[in-house]
Design goal:
α1 packs parallel to α4. A seven-stranded mixed beta sheet has the order 5-4-13-14-15-12-16. A hairpin with a 4-residue loop joins β19 and β20. The chain folds into two domains: 13-81 and 107-173 and 272-375, FAD/NAD(P)-binding domain, CATH 3.50.50.60; 174-268, D-Amino Acid Oxidase, subunit A, domain 2 (D-Amino Acid Oxidase, Chain A, domain 2), CATH 3.30.9.10. The protein has 379 residues and is an alpha/beta fold. It has helices at 21-32, 57-65, 69-74, 106-120, 161-165, 242-248, 253-260, 288-291, 300-314, 321-349, 364-367; strands at 13-17, 36-40, 52-56, 82-86, 89-94, 101-105, 123-125, 130-134, 138-141, 146-148, 151-154, 170-185, 199-204, 210-216, 221-229, 267-275, 279-280, 283-285, 368-369, 374-375. It binds flavin-adenine dinucleotide. It is an enzyme of class 1 (oxidoreductase). Keywords: Monooxygenase, Oxidoreductase. Its EC number is 1.14.13.24. GO terms for molecular function: 3-hydroxybenzoate 6-monooxygenase activity; FAD binding. InterPro entries: FAD-bd, FAD-dep_Monooxygenase_BioMet, FAD/NAD-bd_sf.
Length: 379
């Protein structure tokens, strides 16, 4: 674990809105730097929505920096290769030149972060919904209470009320495809011949656009991402239309049969959000609140966690908080901007389907080490 020294005796207070991956990371990192941190989560409990998640070197280094890497590694998995298929034929097998990457369930990652937040003494308030903020350092809650902080962190996701209350200039655009994400038992022994420990990104452009991202999370759990255009009523149907998925991916039958039994499955679309700036006065935005991106490069949470972690380090610097926030944005934003752009292009053109999509440029964010602020992995 990286030890971080307190630079001032005065205890500063941070109010963090949102208990997702970005908010928890910001809260832990600030707390480690000596801040008093209150985290406001609108839901009745801290929990992750979704199914599985990929983290790369950048996100794993954040976990190391905030002291929960070992817990995450205990029940997560690095496949031998990232395989891409087109119409059931392998078009590429990528191993990223040894760059660390890992797949896990979202619940596992979230639990590790929530445990660590409690351990370091973050005050967690559930049923505490933020409805707005003021640049002077105030967070307004749905209860009518207004809490003050030396720093307010808006980590309240893509629909951020903190962001919207401050009138940031923003561009937002959606993708044409969406995804059903589920965790099912691995069923590795029932799948027949194949390298079923690999990630397999199975694309079909014809007769319909349908893709399954097959991602083993550990020995027991498999993350399935079933992608189809939102204009396709059968591909986007939940619970799963078993027939339409079996037609294209018959070899996954045991997994798909279990997937179709999941009643509360969701079909989610995704969007890109781009702001003119990530901070206003004492308020900083991290994660999807500030820079939601398409999942093509599996970097939304990775970038969110990096930005939350570096925010906590950079507020220790600068003549004023406002100056420190501007310097923080200048330091890490180019990586997020590039990753957002590449992810949106891939989503719009479905170019990951051609294989070998993880070029050195596409792996820019993944190769970044947020502790030493260098690209610590060779291209
Ligand atoms: C299909 C898909 C696949 C993806 N795969 C990956 C991947 O493999 N790797 C990766 O790095 N990223 C991935 N991402 C992106 C990643 O899921 C997000 O970037 C990440 O979850 C954002 O985390 P966050 O904490 O910023 O926001 P959120 O996860 O949205 O968390 C926001 C939190 O704030 C709470 N909240 C909301 N409003 C309020 C409020 N007003 N007051 C208080 N609390 C509030 C919510 O309940 C929630 O707990 C994927 C995204 C999609 C859509």
């Amino acid at each position: 674990m990286v030890s971080i020294n307190k630079t001032s005796d005065k205890t500063r207070v941070a109010q963090v809105a949102g208990g997702g991956f970005s908010g928890l990371t910001a809260a832990i990192a600030l707390r480690q730097n000596g801040w008093d941190v209150v985290l406001h989560e609108k839901s009745p409990e801290l929990r992750a929505f979704g199914a599985g998640i990929y983290l790369w070197h950048n996100g794993l280094r954040v976990l190391e920096g905030i002291g929960c890497l070992n817990e995450v590694l205990e029940d997560s998995f690095t496949p031998p290769a990232y395989e891409t298929w087109m119409h059931n034929k392998t078009v590429s097998k990528e191993t990223f030149n040894g760059l660390p990457w890992r797949i896990m369930t979202r619940a596992h990652l979230h639990d590790a972060l929530a445990n660590r937040a409690r351990e370091v003494g973050v005050e967690i308030r559930t049923n505490s919904e933020a409805v707005g903020a003021e640049a002077s350092g105030k967070l307004k809650l749905a209860s009518g209470e207004v809490v003050e902080g030396d720093l307010i962190v808006g980590a309240d996701g893509v629909g951020s009320k903190v962001r919207d209350s401050l009138g940031f200039e923003q561009e937002r655009w959606g993708a044409t495809d969406g995804i059903i994400r589920l965790i099912v038992p691995r069923h590795k022994d029932k799948l027949g011949h194949g390298e079923w420990d690999n990630t397999i990104d199975m694309w079909n452009h014809w007769p319909r656009v349908q893709r399954i991202l097959y991602s083993p999370c550990n020995d027991r759990e498999l993350y399935l991402g079933l992608m189809a255009p939102s204009a396709d009523p059968r591909g986007s149907k939940v619970p799963l239309d078993l027939e339409v998925w079996m037609e294209m991916f018959p070899f996954l039958e045991p997994c798909l049969v279990d997937a179709a039994k999941i009643e509360d499955a969701r079909y989610d679309t995704y969007q890109t959000t781009k702001l003119n700036t990530w901070s206003r006065g004492k308020v900083a935005l991290v994660g999807d609140a500030g820079h939601a991106m398409c999942p093509a490069l599996a970097q939304g949470a990775g970038c969110g966690m990096v930005n939350a972690f570096t925010l906590a380090q950079d507020v220790e610097k600068g003549a004023s908080l406002e100056e420190a926030l501007a310097d923080w944005e200048k330091s890490v934003r180019p990586i997020t901007d590039l990753t957002q752009k590449l992810s949106a292009d891939h989503a719009a053109n479905r170019t990951m389907s051609y294989g070998n999509g993880f070029t050195p440029e596409a792996l820019t964010a993944a190769r970044f080490d947020p502790i030493n602020r260098v690209y610590s992995w060779p291209q």
